[in-house]
Amino acid sequence: MTKGEQLMGMGKKFAMAATTGALAVAGIAATGGTAFAGTDGQQIVIYDETHRVASIKIQGFNQKGQPTTACLATPGYETRMYGWWWRDSMHFSKWTDKTCGQNGGAWLGSQDEWVRAWMPPSDGDWVGIGIFKNDN
Question: What pTM did the predictor assign?
Fold first, then answer.
């Protein structure tokens, strides 16, 4: 192999490495990202004191402050919503079915909560939301 062929081979390797690096950065930028404990939102844990709620439709803001909606099945007294980071005002609609009313469940009422965007790391990254009463 001549020196020119070696240099051309190295140039191709460098170009491939640069392209791979650029794609990796673009992939990270395209994802929503995650919050870090206590800094950009909190994960929530639902405590159903009524033992009647099978799902909760959550409307609120994610760690970036963007409006977000989710349906969370709540099969027991304590239900954690892993991987979702919430902040600021949140609205909860409570249902008797596991699909937030999509399969004909009865609406049990709603409640509003506030989740702090920032908490000291010593407080962890979970915020408890208690369901103490239902409207129906």
Answer: 0.69
